[in-house]
Amino acid sequence: MTEQGHEHKRRSPADWWLFVVGLVLFSAIGWVVTPAIIYAEKPQPLNFNHKLHGPDGDAGKSCEDCHSFRDDGSFAGIPRVESCLECHEEVMGETPDEKKLVEVYIKGKKPIPWRVYAKQPPCVYFSHAAHVKNAGMECTECHGDHGTTEKLRPYQENRLTGYSRDIWGWAIHGWADPPERMKMDDCADCHRENGVREACFVCHK
Amino acid sequence: MPVATGEHLYGMVIDVDKCTGCGACSVACMSENNIGTLPDETDKIRSITWLRVYQIDNGRPYPDTEVAFFPRPCMHCGGSWGGFFQQDADPEGHHTPCVSVCPATATDYDDETGIVSQIPTRCIGCRYCVAACPYHARYFNWYDVPWPGGLEQSLSPYVAPRMRGVVEKCTFCYHRYQQARDKEFAGGEFGEMDYQTACTEACPSGAITFGDLNNPEHQVSKLLRQRHKHAFRLLERLGTNPKVYYMTKREWVRKRADNYLPGEKIHRFAVGS
Amino acid sequence: MDWDRRAFVKFAVGGVTGLHLSPLVWKLMDDVSIWTQNWSWVPNPADGALAKANSFNPATGTAVKVRLINSRIIPKDAYNPDGKAPRTRAIRVEGNPEYPLGLGIGGVVPQDASALQNAYLGDVRVKAPMVLDKTTGVYKEISWGAAIDMVAGKLAQLKKADQAQRVVAFGDNPDNTTGQILKAFMAAYGSPNLAFAPRAEDTLALAAGLMLSQPEIGFDLLGAKYILSLGTPLLEGFGAPVAVRAAFTKWRQGGAKLVQVEDRASVTASQAAKWVACAPGSQGVLALAMCQVLLAKGLAAEGSLNGLDDFKALVDSKFTPKAAAHATGLKPVAIEALAVEFGQAKQAVAVCGPGPGNEPGRLGDFMAVLALNALKGNLGKPGGVVVRGALPLKPLAAPAGASAAGLKGAARYAGHSNPLTMAAAALAGDPYKPKMAIIAGANPAYRGPQAGTFAKMLRQVPFVVAISSYLDESATLADLLLPAGTFLESWGDAVTPYGQAQASYGLHKPLLKIQPKSKAVGDALLMLAAKLGGEVAAALPYKSMAEALKARLGDGFKKVAEKGWWVQEKVSYGFNGSVDLQAATIAKSLGHQAASHGHSLTLAAVPSLRTCNNSEPITPHMIKILTDDTLRFKDQTVVEINPETAKHLHLHDGDLVTVDSTEGGFQARVKFFAGARPGMLYMPVGLGHTAFGFYRRGRGGNYNAVAKAEADAVTGLPVWGLTPVHVRKV
Questions:
Q1: Residues of C in contact with B202 (CB under 8 A)
Q2: Closest to C24 (Cβ–Cβ): which among A30, A113, A163?
Q3: Average pLDDT, chain C
Q4: How many domains, in total, are found in chain A?
């Protein structure tokens, strides 16, 4: 009796394929669903055609005409609706987006609630002047080349934290070359590589 | 002597003989740095004033009584100056009291400016630094600050408002240094007047001077050279090596700057760069 | 293969491992940690382009710059009551280094630095015209038009019934444009009952007018090398504090000597080279005794002084150093030494000035100090008493006929321009009871004199209109509230502060729309005048406050509006008038010295820039900088007492006591302070509001409500610097 109880049932090593299936399956699920279940795609209030406004487009404006540094060295970021008003006092083209711009925002004297791709938490002080004017970096190094796009790319908001996808980065695996992420570690890495100051107050306020 | 390792060493000289205790520096600091008001501000343990003005008197009877004021921002201690209790301190490193105890690296000593930072979002609220600071310059947010009825509209975007459960303190208006640097990068000059703290600007009798102690041209350095006999720091014998200097011609005021025993002789430390 | 337990465990373990090989878990962990760092209830101030605009704070006389942020993005949780997010907001009020009287320092006082709090704190602002429903006690919002109709209707009705004199009005400052409009309004309407907050400016103008025939005088603080301050709070709120501090800095650098004559070890006394601790309220006596010494020792200036013989006779008989020793509590030798030092000093000036809260002071004290200056011979000299230049202002243009008719109307009735007698007469119904009160940008129910009496009067008046920025003590007694703009939201001006050597003018303009329905006090009065029509409209032919200011400033308007200030370029030296020493008037005013009333202690207020006592209330940030020496345990005022005096009264440091005068009382904590004069009790002034929301209501006692006001023997102006009180341990 006792011997019988101790008798092992022979196990097939082939059973391990279930482990592998689980591993591969859930890993795949994880890779597939990761951005989708964490990020919600939110629409911009209206589409902006950078190509049309840019140097090669109809408006023929340079990037700095709208995305300018102020006299005090601070960066103005996305232009105010007043800048749009310079040309769009009346509807000029046929797109519904422009119609919305003129009727809702310009005539309604409301600021356009753009969703800012690179918005950082309030404790962060990012100096555009230090990176662009002093270090000579190109805007595209961080913001990508959307100066020639016809459509605004989708804005994804983290369901938990409320921050933009751009902060974490668009590469699901979390690394890309050049680094496209905008988290504190990424700032610190770059500062370290280039021998720039790393004290807390360099980037915090 | 202050530890001079970096490019700048920002410090302050406060002329006690010019200070009239009006509190303009303190209030200007609050409006500059988004410091709110709690419903009960007489509870001084929980009240937050980055720059507090202490009143002292000479303790003599009427009519020989005299009062004076010590405006007290964060001292931005350099540490390691080998003071009274630290004869063999490491002259190269810093031993800023608060920085050395922070378990979360929420505060650090910037070698380039000599400014002690405080990052509230990184702070875990253990209050070790509050206990370590001999000047009571650090404050803990016991409550969320209310901004009732539109008051939040007067908040400055240059300083992040804090949340309950973290420590905050004077930053020498570091955001103004950031702004001055931005201006410099954009092609402007970074002169002495481009980086001044809010309290310095606000003082109506010009009692506060702020600038780079490493720069002999700056007013702070000149003052310390010219009037080094009148200059002193608070609790100098602790060896915290503060970068906030005070000046007075009145001996009794100087005596109040440290815990002297009655009849004890005042220690005079070399001052000036 | 069987799908048994072991197989499932293998699959599950594989799955979990697989999941960990994907970014999902790690990312979620990271996000959760970031989520814990989100404090949605902590405001996130919107960034934007920064601009600076010039302005002028009329309450403090400080030229300021306002930092404005023009925001592009409005945070979603921004305070936004009416759905339209305001895009321009002010983040800071700072000094204007270009202001010449600040000597380039560009400083401020706490009230300037926290002015935004008063403007933005919506809970205590009057937001819209509101009328009190007397049956329910609830205020109901109405439109401006309806409110003006209501007031104009009542005014017209009273006028028709020949009861114009039964309308009483109270303003803040008679010299600024708002005050001028109010004066013209009341004169044309036909009521003589118009009072303003009493100020030391009035006393100084009266004294200077009597003695020098020049009401507009100042003390050349910047030019002086020796400053004898007779009880003035030079560093605690004298004149325009920023300008006085700049002068103080100059004294420090240039080695000028400051001598402070005062009863308490105040900041000024401590910063002075010498503190002469004289009895409270005896500065005039000391000045006269010093005059006596100057005359007796031949140190008095040569020159023709009218009435010198009478004056000599007066001081020789009653004000020798020996005779003054008792009143001043100083040794005759000390008085003599001080007089000799003053007489021999170069560029020396004796300064008289306002008591706490700009309390007007006694005429005799002011005249005695002016006599001392006249004997010193510093009239019109650098570092002396100088005559101010004129302001670049035209008077309010009123058609001659209309204005005269209005004044004639007003003169038909007996009335009061003195708030103390006005309130007393109204309460007694002597000779009539007021039927309507207009409070124009002032707060007499808090500031006094005898705030309690004034509040009592307002409670008895059947219809009270308050044009006010805040729901202050006076406004909460009103039946109709009209929202006034703060200096950041409206047009207005300020004239030369007390005792300043150079004439100066400040202009503030609307920079922000914090309370969109608010209007300048002047605007409300002008709307009322237009609605009333007739003589009143003819006397005030302006559409708005801006237009009135434009008319007064003429071509200079644009420049002054841009800069925010105008200052007389140089001090005008030279004095060619005659001096009349008016010994009889001095004797009369000083003769009625308030003697000790057999009370245990005399209460005096301590002025401070931390607890302002002017037309604007203390701000929440200023409450923060009050130490345990001013306010303790939420709401207890701290009273200072000399340890020796306390010993006699069996009081200990930190005791809770009640302080009672004939007018009222409060609870306080006793604080021992060696610098307090024996027999005196000192309290801060500017606290103890009964309105202004949870930051300020009930914080300490209000000196103005406790103080007993006395009328000056000559001018009848209220004086309430010293009040006899009883102190009892709780």
A1: 94-95, 107-108, 113
A2: A30
A3: 90
A4: 1
